[in-house]
Amino acid sequence: MSAISTICSIFKKHKSFLTSKELSNIIRERFKEVTIDSGMTNFPRVSTMQINGKLYYLRLYSLNNLLNASRYLWASYCLKKSKIMTPKIEQTCLTSIAEIKCYAVLENRLPGKEMASIKQNSIITGNFANDLRQWHNIPRVFYKNYKGIFAIHDKKHFGTRINRKALPNITLNEKQLELISQAKGLIHKPELYSHMSISHGDVNPHNLIIHKENTIAWVDMDMICLQPIWYDLAAAMCKIMIKNHPSDINVFEKAYFKNKPELYQEWKLLKNHWLFLYNVLEAVKWFATDRTKRLGSKQFSNNNPNLDSFKWGQKYFIQAEAILNLANQNLSSGEIISEMNYAVEDFKSLKRLPNNNEAYQERINA
């Protein structure tokens, strides 16, 4: 039996207030007016569904994308054993929308706020660091039988990501090409891939729900993978700590590396490398992704998803350059945070420019 069928079979015996058939009928009724273009890469995802007066999240996966669904099921089944809070899955089923078959996952909607909307709070920061450490300490026994569902993010993976081509309407300037070139040189360093671990795969403040008593629930777990712990730490720094909780960086590191002085020394040696590499990888991703094929494109400014991709790519190049400059200077942690905040503010001014690529390119080349 494959890893996917093994984990899916667990939920065939799952008891729920709904049957698979009932859930399928609810979904079909909800989406009976939906038309899906064959070129679309994502099914529509409903933020919330109300059933019998209670709110739930519904996730839909094409049958080509069952790996993502199986990761979600694995997380619901296994993470609670590691004391990592995740939403409870109520029911799963095969269904169809606009005559296209898909796999549905219905989960409880947890009360709370996204970490993105929470003001600086050292207790939450400490809990976040402890949770991330729990992820990285998940015993091998919890995932050894399901390895087939996890992508392995190693040197080959990051090499493929850094070589992605920008969309035809985006031209990289010399500065950006140089940053990519330096990142390519870093990717081959073997020390960057020490301490491989199970990872959430998308550590960002929108995937962290602040629950009761400042505890944290993790959501959007369909990108779980095996990768270096340093990548998660870089994501936590760039997307959460520097942006929203800069004065708690020491609190975060102290909690994560508690009783692990050797690991902390290793992080100090690799930190600038991974912060730089993370930002360049994110920039390349945003510049290379054609987001017009996503049904959720209307959420972007002026219904132009690729324009927003361009904005975010520029943001990460700005941060990568700032980190590279910092790595060549002997700055205090306070000065580093100040410089990184400047990069974030520079991006905010970039977002206020008129929505056309020429204006953005002119601003970046200035």
Describe the structure.
The chain has two domains: 3-108, Phosphorylase Kinase, domain 1 (2-Layer Sandwich); 113-365, Alpha-Beta Complex (Aminoglycoside 3'-phosphotransferase, Chain: A, domain 2). It has twelve helices and ten strands. The chain has helices at residues 3-12, 20-30, 66-78, 122-136, 155-162, 174-187, 229-244, 249-256, 261-288, 305-327, 333-351, 357-365; strands at residues 49-51, 54-62, 89-97, 100-108, 113-114, 151-152, 196-199, 208-210, 216-218, 225-228. The strands form three sheets. The chain has a four-stranded antiparallel sheet, with helices on both faces. A hairpin with a 2-residue loop joins strand 3 and strand 4 (100-108). The termini are far apart.
Question: What is the topological layout?
Answer:
Blueprint: H1 3-12, H2 20-30, E1 49-51, E2 54-62, H3 66-78, E3 89-97, E4 100-108, E5 113-114, H4 122-136, E6 151-152, H5 155-162, H6 174-187, E7 196-199, E8 208-210, E9 216-218, E10 225-228, H7 229-244, H8 249-256, H9 261-288, H10 305-327, H11 333-351, H12 357-365
Parallel strand pairs: 6-10
Antiparallel strand pairs: 1-2, 2-4, 3-4, 5-8, 7-10, 8-9
Helix pairs in contact: 1-3, 4-8, 5-6, 6-9, 7-9, 9-10, 10-11
